[in-house]
Amino acid sequence: MEQATQTLPHEGTATIFVAVDHCTAACVGSHAARRGTHFEALEPIRQAVRQGFDHTDRDVAASLSIRHDHGSQSMGHDVQAELKFLGIRSTPAFGAEPERNGVAERFIRTLKEPLLWVETFASVEALNEALHRFGQRYDDGWLVQKHGHRTPSQVRARLSPPAAQAA
To answer: CA 27, CA 16: separation in Å to the nearest integer?
Structure first.
């Protein structure tokens, strides 16, 4: 799931894009930029693909789909072309039904309450560093009710196949 919000570092308004794994509720990508363009919107998706597959070659993520809103960043030609290149199926949320993108919406609210509404940032670069730290803290420490009050990292570990044992 991909979602965006805005904040105001000292440099001026910045758009924040996030990618959240619907299954585990983990933050798998985040990126802030002065301008919320289609190209900037792709960065958290690329982060998620690199994290899951180690590269961003054609059709590498054919097993994935992405839920997003009908915003111009998500529905733009460049974003849709990149999703197609990566093999990711685009699944826009239904209009007037924000709950269809609820995991990402909840993550955005969680991001705002302890970080964006409380801290100030000297620059977009400082904001990106804070987003990265927050994503790690969230994945390792935020208890998600739908997972029986387990963290996204705990859920991911439970779902991952056991490592091959050396002979």
So the answer is: 13
**CB proximity list for 63: less than 8 A, separation 6 or greater:** 87
How far lies 62's CA from each of 34, 40, 84, 90, in Å? Answer: 31, 22, 9, 11
Distance of CA 30 to the CA centre of its chain: 5
CA 48 – CA 63 distance, rounded (Å): 13
Tokens found for residue 29: 């990508």
Strands (E), 74-119: 89-92
Torsion of CA 61, 67, 68, 69, to 10 degrees: 160
Q: What 3-state class would DSSP assign to 85?
A: helix
pLDDT digit string (tens) for 38-76? 889 899 999 999 998 998 899 999 988 888 776 666 777
